[in-house]
Amino acid sequence: MTVTAVPPEASSASAAPRGGGVRRSVLRRAVPYLQAGPLALTLLVFLLIPILTIVAVSFWDYDSIRIYPDFVLTNYEELLTSPVTWKTYLNTVKFAALTWVITLLIGFTVAYFLAFHVQSTTWQMVLFLVCTIPFWTSNIIRMISWIPFLGRNGLLNSGLISAGLIDRPLEFLLFSDFAVVLAFVHLYALFMVVPIFNSMMRIDRALVEAARDGGASAAQVVWNVILPLAKPGIAIGSIFVVTLVMGDFITVRLMSGGQSASIGLMIANEISLLQYPAAAANAVVLLAVVLIMVVAMLRIVDIRKEL
Amino acid sequence: MTETRTGSPLSAGTTKGVSRRTLLKDTAAAAGVAIGSGAITGFPTIWAQNIKNVTLRQFGTGVSNLNAVADKVKEDLGFTLQMTALDSDAVAQRAVTQPKSYDIADIEYWICKKVFPAGVMQPMDVKKIKNFDKIVPIFVNGKLTPDSAVAQGTAPHTVGFVEGKDSIKFAKSATQWMTLIPTIYNADTLGIRPDLVGRPITSWTDLLDPAFKGKASILNIPSIGIMDAAMVCEAMGEVKYGDKGNMTKEEIDKTIKIMTDAKKAGQFRAFWKTFDESVNLMSSGEVIIQSMWSPAVAAVRAKGIPCVYQPLKEGYRAWGGGLGIAKHLSGLELEAAYEYINWYLSGWVGAYLNRQGYYSAVLDTAKEHMSADEWAFWMEGQPAKTDILSPEGKVMEKAGAVRDGGSFKDRMGRVACWNAVMDEDRYMVRKWNEFIAA
C-alpha cells in the first residue's frame, strides 16, 4: 500500500509549485467572496427568504380557518380600496411626523449641548452615558410606566389637583394621541441624539472659530455651519425614528387604550384573526412605503459622508 | 397505538416549573386530600394495567385547561393528560388544519360550528356517557326549564348533536351522537364600579349613557364585542335583530354606526383585549362601566375595590365550551377518552369550576363535591354563611356576600344570546376594525 502510494505522491509534489500557484490566485480572488459569504448567507436566510415568503403569501387566498396557495389580488384590492387603510396610514404618518419633529428638536439640542457646550471629553462621555440610562430597562416597561403616571387618578393629575392648578383631572393625558406621541418621543429620542452627536463631534472646531471671526452670530453659526455639517447624523436619526414609528403597534395600542390605529396594529389584528395573506399584503405595502421614505431621506442627505 | 405515546411519562408540559403551575399543582393535591380518596367512587379497572401508558393530548382555550385537572386525572384514572392552551382563533385553526396533533379538543360551541363540519372530529355515543341524562338541558334542547325561551346566537344544542356516527351534519334535535360534551359555561354581562357610577345600572343601554362619557369600555375581540354592541343597540331600540348571533350586513352596518358615533363622541376611554387590561382599567378608575368577564370582576374585588357584575334587564350574553374527540382516536385511547369525559362529569371538576364562578354541565354530581354553604352561595344565590374560598383556597367573598345576578336559574335562565359565529363573519370583522380605527 505504502509502496504503491509513493510515486503518485512524489509526482504531485513535483507539480505542486505550478498547481499551488493557480490555486493560490483562485483563492485570492475567492477571498472577498468568502469574507462576504457569511453576511450574504445570513441576509439571504433571515431577510431575503422571509420577505419573499411574505410577498408570496400576500397573493394567497384565505377563509376564516385556512389559507390556500393561489394567486389572487383581492388582498391588495381590499386593502387599497378600504378607507380604513388610508385613514390608518394617515394616522401613522401623523404619529411619525410629530415624533420626528419633536425628537429632532430634542436630539439636536441635546447633541449640540453635549458637543459644543461641554468642554471636557470626560464630562461629554459621562453625560452621554447618562442619556442612555433609560435604555437599561425594557422599552415596554418604560412605556407602561407612563400609564399610572398620566391616568385619571395618576401621579400627574393628583399632583396638579393638590397644587390647585386644575380642579378636575385632565382626560387628554392618557389613552389619547398625546399619550402615544409622548411615549414615542420618550422611547426614540436617543436614536436621534446619538447619530447627531456623532456628526457634531466630527465637525472641525476651526470652522466654528472661522465663522465667529467672520462675524457670524451664535445663531448664524448653528444655522449655517453646524446644521449643514450635522445633516448626515440627522438623516440617520430620522431613518431610525421614522421606521420605528411606522412599524410600531404595541405603543399605539397601549397608550391610546386601543382607540387609535396604526399600520402595525392593523397587521397584528389581521394575524390574530388568522388572515395571514391580508396581513402579508399589508406588510408588503408598509415595506414599500417605508422604503420610499428612506430613499427620499437619502436623496436629500448623503449619509456616506458620515461613514 | 399506545407505543407511539409511551415516550412521555408525566408529560413535560405539566411538569414545567412555572410558579402558577406549581401553585395549581399544590392546591390540586390539597384539594385531593380535602375531598378524600374515599369520595371518588370506583372507576372501571379493566384497563387499569395498560391504560397508564396512555397519554391524551388535550388543547383548548385557557379557561378550562387547568393543570389541577390534569393532575387529578393522573391520580384518579392513571393516564396522562397533556394540556395546551391557545387563544380561541388559534384553537379553531389548529383543530381543522392539524387534526392529528390532538386527541381531545376543548373548544367553545361557536368554534365547534366552524370545526366539526370539517370532519376532523368524531361524535360521542351518549350511551357511553354515564351522566348524559343529568346534563343541564340547555345543552340538549336549549331550554333551561321546559318553558324557557331558546336564546339567539350559536346556542349549544344547535351544534351539540349530529345525525349519525359518521355524520358531520348538525341534527335539529338531540340524537345518540353528541359533538361536544359540555364542560364549562357562564353568563356574561357588564361590570361596573358601584362607587363611581352614582346611580343604579339596569340596562345594556347604560354603556352608551352620555353620563359615563370617557369612562366606558368595550372589549375589542370582534366576535364577542359585536354581541355586546348588539345587546346595547337592541336595548336602545335602535336596531331590531332577526338573530343577534347571525346578523345581516345591514344589521352589522347599523350596529357599527351607533358604536362609531359613540366613539367619536368620546364615550369610550379605551378598548381592551386581554383579561388583565380589563382589570387594570376598572381598578384604576379609568373606566367605570365595561364589558367584563367574571374572573376579571373577582380580580378587581380581590384588590379591595368594589366591582359588581351587574345583571341587566335585557339578559345575559352566554358562552360555553365542551370536550370533543378527534377523529383519529380508536381502541384503548378512545376508551380512555370516554373514561376521561365520564370522569369530567362525575363531580370533582364540576365543583372546581363552580367554585371559580363558572358552571358545570352536570350539577347533581358537582353538588356532592361542594359544601352546602358553597352550593347555596354559587348556585342558589343565597348569602354566604362562611367565607367563600376559591379552588386555590383564597378568600373570594366574605361571609354574608351574595353572588351578583343571584342563582343559577336567574342567571342562565336569562340568557339573551350565545357567543356566535356569523355567516357574514368576514364582513363583520372588517366593519368592526373600521369602528376601532374610526
UniProtKB/TrEMBL annotation, chain A:
The chain crosses the membrane at residues 33-60, 95-114, 126-149, 178-197, 276-301. Keywords: Cell membrane, Membrane, Transmembrane, Transmembrane helix, Transport. The keyword Transmembrane applies. The keyword Repressor does not apply. SUPFAM superfamilies: MetI-like (SSF161098). InterPro entries: MetI-like (IPR000515), MetI-like_sf (IPR035906). It holds the Pfam family BPD_transp_1. It comes from the Bacteria. Residues 89-297 form the ABC transmembrane type-1 domain. It is found in: Cell membrane. It is a multi-pass membrane protein. Its main location: membrane. Belongs to the binding-protein-dependent transport system permease family. CysTW subfamily. This is ABC transporter permease. It comes from Azospirillum isscasi.
Automatic annotation (TrEMBL), chain B:
InterPro entries: SBP, TAT_signal. Gene3D superfamilies: Periplasmic binding protein-like II. Keywords: Signal. Pfam families: SBP_bac_8. The keyword Signal applies. It comes from the Bacteria. This is PotD/PotF family extracellular solute-binding protein. It comes from Azospirillum isscasi.
